[in-house]
Amino acid sequence: MLESRFIRFLFTSGLAAGVNIGSRWLLGFVMPYELAICLAYLFGMTTAFVLAKLFVFKASGAAVHKEYVRFAIVNAAAFLQVWLVSVGLARFIFPAVGLVSHGETIAHIIGVLSPALTSYFAHKNYSFRTEST
After folding, report:
1. Cα torsion for 96, 44, 72, 110, to the nearest 10°?
2. What is the mean pLDDT of the chain?
3. Residue 15 CA to chain centroid, in angstroms?
4. How far is residue 2's CA from residue 74's CA, in Å, rounded to a whole number?
5. Helix, strand, coil content of the chain in percent (nearest 5)
6. Residue 82's closest CA among 58, 108, 59?
7. What's the rounded Cα separation, in Å, for the pair 68 and 128?
8. pTM for the full predicted model
9. Which of 30, 68, 83, 111 is the most exposed place for a label (fewest CB within 10 A)?
10. Are 5 and 57 in contact (CB under 8 A)?
11. Per-residue buried b or exposed e for 11-48, using 16+ beta carbons within 10 Å of the residue's own CB
12. Is 50 exposed, middle or buried (0-12, 13-18, 19+ CB in 10 A)?
């Protein structure tokens, strides 16, 4: 059975993923796909941090900026995965199999979803871990 906190994490992460994907789509009108992914990831990550802090994880006792730095470190690793999956699918895999309609958007959605499980445990045990007294 899935624990309640993990379900809340998936829900809030889904909302943040929507911010990420929506902002990437909008940014795509004014910059290249690869750069839009980078900037959109920052929008999504900040949204995810605020939602996770408010609705998912207990107060850790750490300063907010310290939690945000830890959150950003976890997300830096996850970003590499998101970028590789998104760009790899959009630029190499999808064209090779003939998927051309909405390929970038589909690739980005898959990329954004790819680190969900590992991110949850990293945030639970690192970003929002309870400070020792």
Report:
1. -30
2. 90
3. 10
4. 22
5. 80, 0, 20
6. 108
7. 9
8. 0.78
9. 30
10. yes
11. ebbeebbebbbebbeebbeeeebeebbeebbebbbbbb
12. middle
pLDDT, tens digit, 9 for 90 and up, residues 84-124: 999 999 999 999 999 989 998 999 889 988 998 889 999 99
Residue type, 7: I
Q: What is the pLDDT of residues 36-81, one digit of tens each?
A: 988 998 999 999 999 999 999 988 888 899 999 999 999 999 889 9
In one-letter notation, the amino acid at residue 17 is A
- Are residues 72 and 64 in contact, defined by beta-carbon separation less than 8 angstroms? no
Which tokens is 32 given? 């290249």
- Sequence length of the chain is 133
| The residue to which tokens 């996850």 are assigned | 78
Residue indicated by tokens 């970028």: 83
Residue 116 burial (C-beta neighbours within 10 Å; 0-12, 13-18, 19+)? middle
* Cβ neighbours around 71 below 10 Å, total: 22
